[in-house]
Fold this protein.
Amino acid sequence: MIEETDSQAAERERMREPDKQSSSQGIARAVVRVLERNSVAALATVVEAGARVGAKLLIEETGERSGSLGSPELDEAAAAYAGTFLQSRAEARTFKLDEITDEFEPGTEARILFERVEPEPRLVICGAGHVGASLARLACAIGYRTTLIDDRADFVRRERFPDESIELVSADGWAEALRQSIGAGRGVAVAIVTRGHNEDEECLRAVMSARPDYVGLIGSRRRTNIVLDRLREAGVSEERLREIRAPVGLDIGAVSPQEVALSILAEIVAERRGGTGLPLSSWRRT
């Protein structure tokens, strides 16, 4: 058997550079497409497997693929596992090859990094009172693209919110403003913290047709029941009504507007990340 010299190996690798660049450009274009579609995808990267290290494959939720991990078998294994990874809601995780497939010979060494690709999370807030204002500032601080809507122009003046990353919307009507802000609903949470039953109902009617990932309604049990009963009488199904977090937020004993905002955002994050909302130390008392 004739062994490949170092110079021959280097020349072979040099010849592959255009293919690598083309693959990287294809993946970059696919990532842009995923974000523009408000979709989600898994990016698989070989991080340990000899010559294939650095190879990438993007698997979109539609099944479309861009790039390659270096072999059809490896591509198929990664694509088959991508759905499971996306359902886990993890941002990134590294797997040994035998953790995601049993199609390879025992002892085949490879480690694959899966990363989630999706638009940045968005929060649409209805109502710019004390709680809404606090929620907008807090959500913006942890990386949510935030839209704050109110039908009172004075409440959404830029002077109240110097941080220009918070989008301010003065609404002539709640329904149209919400439809435009929510869009397709993917990756969007909506918190309804308006000043009254009528405003709550108008917002919820608009939200029901938009199907965001999360919907929360502030208020006491009595107040939220009034609004939900009105929607029930209007023909909204029980299944849809059960999707509404009402009253919104986790029970942290919140009193101040800032604390209420914290309880709302904690629930939104838990829903997005698949958290339980339980104390991390609870295992010590079981």
